[in-house]
Model the fold of this input.
Amino acid sequence: MKDKKEHLPVYGVGPIYGMGILLATVVGIALSCMEIVPVASFSVTKIPFIIIGILITVLGFVIWFKAAFRIDKYIVSNELCTDGIYAVVRNPCYSGIMLMCTGVLFIANNLYLLILPFVYWIAMTILMKNTEEKWLYELYGQEYLDYCKRVNRCIPWFQRK
Done:
């Protein structure tokens, strides 16, 4: 057994997930604009979708920003970060990117593209369960399990008691 725990990689699987959903968003919108993906929109949804999209995108950016410049010091010092934005969602960088991409999809105003956020959520869940959650459990054990019981994986929400 090692005396000192190794820490997680600073970037983890984040770039893979982030680039993947960013690419899926861009490709989905491009295919929609080229009418390869059918367009299902209504003139009545255009303005509300743009407003909702902007709000979701801004929320995603705020969540990502609050996490991105905070986590490095915890990883390097090998501590489990459970405060700040991490008290609201366990994976705020990934959630923030997911929300920004979802907001852009709302702005695109194509109902068919709104299936992608569900794909993003499923991909994030599978990726986290098979990588970082295993790593964090190995490093922090019961402390991490208790944290998981209180805080959602990817949907920002108030702590459960």
Summary: The chain has a mean pLDDT of 89. The helical segments are 14-33, 43-68, 71-76, 92-108, 116-130, 132-140, 142-150. DSSP finds seven helices and no strands in the chain.
